[in-house]
């Protein structure tokens, strides 16, 4: 038997995504949800997630997805001084990280501010904290994350490790454990595919290399209302998100898990 945390890290980004996540929780198809608190939707949408999680017949972990890239902006004055009104793109972190030029103190301040906002609105600490976009692979980012979480005495969330990390030899995991933090390993992501056969193949074969208890990310969504013409790339992505939702909420999905001996926990 293989256990996985089937997770969406996108609650609070759009109405279509939020509705999809809530419906999957009610259907018992999601193990965990990460909330994005940097947008305006978080304070308007959180109560629906809270109620759905309370009503569901199974326990769903609710955590925080820390956002450090555009179009989100810093929550602190310190962050705005360092980053400006919006965070930089992922490539900015990738270019500066090898030269040890990432502003670790400012990153830590923004992580702490997003944790505080989650707790203020949701009225409980996050069960886990993940960094959006796999930015936790950069030393300054995961160092800042470990520093912030280790200071949350008595309410320490689990730390979601970046993709590609091995259980036995990773220094991030060892440092987090030394700081008294639980860690969650990242597994392969559910493919963005328009065909159900690709999603079936993922659970039959693609998930075989995932570590037990790994977090497997999905990106389900209902169709979004678009006020302006949408680029062809975004249309295809939207179609793939809708297909993920259709597959995960289908009657076939739990039987597939049973046949493959996969347990959502």
Verbal overview:
The protein has helices spanning 15-26, 41-55, 77-83, 90-96, 104-122, 139-150, 171-178, 196-206, 232-248, 252-260, and strands at residues 2-11, 32-35, 61-66, 128-131, 158-160, 183-184, 214-217, 262-264. It has 10 helices and 8 strands. It is globular. The termini are close together. Strands 1, 2, 3, 4, 5, 6, 7 and 8 form an 8-stranded parallel β-sheet that branches. By secondary structure, it is α/β, with parallel strands linked by helices. The model has no long low-confidence stretch (mean pLDDT 93).
**What is the ordering of alpha helices and beta strands?**
EHEHEHHHEHEHEHEHHE
Mean pLDDT reading: 93
How much helicity do the residues have?
A: 40-55%
Oligomer: single chain
The shape is globular
Unreliable residue runs: none
Hey, roughly how much beta strand do the residues contain? 5-15%
- How many individual helices? 10
Report the strand count.
8
Briefly note the structural class of the backbone: alpha/beta
- Our Rg estimate from Cα atoms comes to 18 Å
Query: What is the rounded distance between the termini?
Result: 12 Å
Task: State the main characteristics.
265 residues, alpha/beta, eight-stranded parallel beta sheet
SSE layout and pairings?
Elements: E1 2-11, H1 15-26, E2 32-35, H2 41-55, E3 61-66, H3 77-83, H4 90-96, H5 104-122, E4 128-131, H6 139-150, E5 158-160, H7 171-178, E6 183-184, H8 196-206, E7 214-217, H9 232-248, H10 252-260, E8 262-264
Parallel strand pairs: 1-2, 1-7, 1-8, 2-3, 3-4, 4-5, 5-6
Helix pairs in contact: 1-2, 5-6
